[in-house]
Amino acid sequence: MFDHQEFQFNSEPYSRIESANRYDFGEDIFGSSSEVVKGILEKEVKSLDLTETTLAKQVREFVYKRENRKKYVQEADNHLKHKQLALSQDYDVILVGAGLHSAIYLYTVKKKNPNLKILIVEKSSTQCSTFYKYGDSLVLNSPTYTKVGLNSNIIQGHFIQVSDFDELATRPFPTGKHLFELATMVLFHADADILFNFEVKDIRKDDDKYILSHQGKSVGAKNLVISNGMGEPISASFQKDRISEKTLCGDDFIAKCYEDDHFYEQIKDKSIAVVGDGDTANCVMEYLLPLVYPNRLYGFYREAPFLPKFVYWIGQCAGNIQEYFFANKTRYCHSGGIIEFFWSGDTPFDLSTEVWEDAKNKIRCVPEKLVSLSHKIDSINLRTSNESLDVDLVIDCTGRFNELSSLLLQGEFEFIEGDIVLYGGRWDEILDRFVDSPRTLEAKRIACKIKGENIFFVGSACPLNQLIDDEEARNGSFKHQEERKSLTNSKWSLEHTLPRTVTFAKKFVDGFEKLSNATSHLQAGR
């Protein structure tokens, strides 16, 4: 499988990569950001010459190297956070949330109509806060190849992709840090206005405007786009009894592993229970045992394989870990598809056979729901319907909850439809190999809105089970992957949500301009 030309990694600098092998999305840099970009390059590049090439190409060449990209992102981040904002109640659009979907929405709208007045409000102190928190601890399961667009994390329309990052040429698995860097650059190049530390808890209607207020600040717009992601981790009922550090939510576990190199050593020789069967639980399990994902802290390339004493996966319906992996070939596209060939023997990866065999024997799937949790002096007791387990640490991965979106969508809402374009490679059953894309899916649901209001929802702020149909993606990776009737195993994949936001942004501008033209004609008639 890895002998295909499509899988040959390209370690050459960007200038040597054939331009025909990357998507041409244009080279737009908007507003005051263009001058700031020039200033950054003039300071960092010895001979900046814009007569032979464009500013965007110079940026792409510069950020290819990790050390250069770090400097560029720091400058972009500083500009976004210290930009002077003249707040008003007359915005055309207010975006709630400063993550990837807001970034691509804003960038797409600016390309079609740079004159629209748009503000982003973000409750945290930084943009793309979830991926920023995860950093390198979260490795995404969609590989990035420079020769073929086999990558579900493509920011359509932007002139830089994660495939333009040098470290992804040899180990092509983007992390949360890479998506944070990319989101920061997209927002920067879109000349975004972001009001940080502004939490939206309620919305007041004043004539045709929606007014948002927080800590003495008030802003308003004719249209609201809710783009605040999946929300916060759900705190299960047992979480309120936090008398020790023996219970952690999955997000905190992943974040702590990124923030503190020594935190991970605490799992050594500990009995651990992971509760939940969603993507967060998958990521935590991948972190605990070196079975997947190339990363310096875990996976096949783990530098210091601190293994737990034992791991119970509560809520995982697979009969055992082997069954789980074999049924998840689409999630583990880099390992799951071939893992069955060496499951009972030596691995072809940088992992000793001894560690490999040890890791496989340290996990047991418990396909039952957690009923109760109680603290003991030296351990935590977990009860399911049929079992009683004593462990040293509980990692709660029981899901997320978007409070604002759930509150607003309690009433009637409707879906908006459009044609979406999916970029990234796909497996061709006839050719028996990965082939390049894009591919178009027609008349798909792309966003939703409250009936009778101009309040829209994009990305994971939407009810994704209804937004994305089962032929495109099916939730419950174990239950459906052997059938191979869907493109991916997760409706939460960026491969499905980002293209929808791009299509919605284009339709929104078209609709806004039609409404504006109709209003202008009406006023002229008067």
What does this entry show, briefly?
With 526 residues, this protein is an alpha/beta fold. It has 15 helices and 21 strands.
Description:
The chain is globular. Mean pLDDT is 80; it is low at 1-20, 143-150, 329-337, 476-486 and 518-526. The chain is built from 15 helices and 21 strands. Helix 8 (279-288) links the parallel strand 9 and strand 10. With 526 residues, it is α/β, with parallel strands linked by helices. Helix 1 (33-44) runs antiparallel to helix 3 and helix 4 (100-112) runs parallel beside helix 6 (176-189). The strands form 5 sheets. Strands 1, 2, 3, 4, 5, 6, 17, 20 and 21 form a 9-stranded mixed sheet that branches. A 5-stranded parallel sheet has the order 8-15-9-10-11.
Keywords:
disordered C terminus; nine-stranded mixed β-sheet; globular; 21 strands; 19% strand; alpha/beta; five-stranded parallel β-sheet
What profile does the largest beta sheet have? Answer: 9 strands, mixed
Count of beta strands: 21
**Low-confidence parts:** 1-20, 143-150, 329-337, 476-486, 518-526
- Quote the distance from N terminus to C terminus: 69 Å
Helicity level, as a percent range? 25-40%
Enumerate how many helices there are, as a single number.
15
What fraction of residues sit in β-strands?
15-25%
CA radius of gyration: 24 Å
The assigned structural class equals alpha/beta
Question: How does the overall form come out from the CA principal axes?
Answer: globular
Average pLDDT level: 80
Give me the secondary-structure topology.
Layout: H1 33-44, H2 55-63, H3 66-82, E1 91-96, H4 100-112, E2 118-121, H5 129-134, H6 176-189, E3 194-195, E4 204-206, E5 209-214, E6 217-226, E7 232-233, E8 247-249, H7 250-259, E9 271-275, H8 279-288, E10 310-314, H9 321-326, H10 336-339, H11 353-360, E11 363-366, E12 372-375, E13 380-383, E14 388-391, E15 393-396, E16 400-401, H12 403-408, E17 413-422, E18 426-428, E19 433-435, E20 439-450, E21 455-457, H13 464-467, H14 477-480, H15 494-525
Parallel strand pairs: 1-2, 1-6, 2-3, 6-21, 8-15, 9-10, 9-15, 10-11
Antiparallel strand pairs: 4-5, 5-6, 7-16, 12-13, 13-14, 17-20, 18-19, 20-21
